[in-house]
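Session log. Operator J.P. requested a structure for one protein chain; no other inputs attached. Running the standard single-chain path with token output.
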Amino acid sequence: MKKQVNKTKVAYRKTKAQMDYENKYFINPLKALIPKSASNHSRSIKLPKYIVFQLNENKELLIDIQEQPATKGNGEQIRINATCRNMQTDNAAFEGWAVCLKAWLPEKIQNVKLKWDIPDIEMQNPHYRRFLFRAWRFAQLYDWFTIDDTNLEEIDKFVGIFNNLTINSSNSDPEQKGNLENRTEYYFVKESNLSEHFKSYYDTDNFDHQLHVGIKRGRMQFFTGGQSAIDLWGRKANTLTVVELKCDNIMVGIISELFLYICVTISLVKGEISVPKVCALEHESKLFSDIKTINRFNAEMLADEFHPMLENDAVLDILNDNLSKNEGIQLRFGKTLFSFYEDSKTLVIR
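Structure written below.
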């Protein structure tokens, strides 16, 4: 018999009063607004357990990411902080929640403030440094979004160390992998008819995949490396298109993931992050050789199904009403649904 592994148990800090409050002011209104499924059933709307949501005066939403006490399977007491974990999970995707709640509840929410419990590890965790980068850039690009006074020093400290950085490069062309999303991504690039379809749809001269966005300072991993990569991308003249692909994955975190990737590429153009001195792959080398000529960025969500909270035109309206022009660039977000039939390699975009 296979031995059962004891899992970590999290003692969530949300009180019943807070949960009742969120049901009253967020969940129930959203359920009333969001269309039912094709079978006429209400669609599941949940708020993350690590984030406390609060409506303040002057139609301000407070997003408070709180550290959680937990017990490991061996009895060890630990604390879990979502700012140090995968950015696309519900508990860390503050950009997604900020935009979606503002889009669906405009009569309640005009501005959003972000607050978080500062982890003990400070700046040593690459996930946390990436979180601080996202918070810093989101506040720069959206004037309705601010950072709580208690966290401003963290942002200042991060900005102070945001230098002498280089983006990772790929050593070899990515191979086809087993899961559905990776297989689909591979087909979209390697099947010539599908690649041509996407080049035409996104108006790009090339269509490639897995552009790494791991960031290093010397040999130290400044942002997470490994599998951190832009799924799909293409370029035409001074325009770069970045595509985040999701298959059977409907988290609001698609906004957060795409936002990070597009901001990394903007930082490359601005010279805040350096390009690699040597690139093994020709398409990466070509991109990096004159990347500073890019001044238009298209950030595209591509999925076979979207989270119900993304099914509102106001989501894109909010994302596209940004302050990128202050930086001498143009940033535009888009969203596309697709169906792909693997056996016949048939693609439908809608």
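Operator note: DSSP finds nine helices and 16 strands in the chain.
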